[in-house]
Design brief:
about 130 residues; alpha+beta; eight-stranded mixed β-sheet; metal-binding
């Protein structure tokens, strides 16, 4: 089974504002919402650059991942390191990015791996 290694950021723009993106309208998990996600890279500077290039988000990443989520699909496995990040500047290059409150987020459809990330963030716990 193919493994995919990713890094997701729960990006805060204010005390109750978070950046999310809508997945493309085709393929795996089409049209669902997620936290900004990039391929997993070896160091923090490379990760920050990836978020800037892919999303137009300049981030201050937390010192350590807040959780690790493993999710098994029928044909692949996602291994996701999850960081909490503060947006330094946000000039979104991706039209599907959206800033929402916690309450607004509860009304949107997220894939299970991202639901696990959000639950861990809210509880301050680590999940697998």
């Amino acid at each position: 089974m193919k493994k995919v290694f990713l890094t997701s950021a729960i990006v805060q723009t204010g005390s109750d504002q978070f950046v999310i993106e809508q997945r493309s309208d085709t393929g795996l998990l089409a049209n669902l919402w997620q936290f900004p996600t990039v391929d997993q890279l070896e160091n923090r500077e490379a990760m920050k650059l990836a978020f800037l290039q892919q999303y137009g988000l300049e981030l201050e990443l937390g010192a350590e991942p807040v959780t690790h989520v493993k999710h098994i699909f029928s044909h692949l496995v996602w291994e996701v390191e999850v960081f909490v990040a503060q947006a330094i500047t946000a000039q979104p290059s991706e039209l599907k990015l959206k800033t929402v409150t916690k309450a607004e987020m509860e009304q949107l459809a997220f894939p299970v791996p991202y639901q696990k990330m959000w639950q861990a963030f809210q509880k301050g716990e680590t999940v697998q």
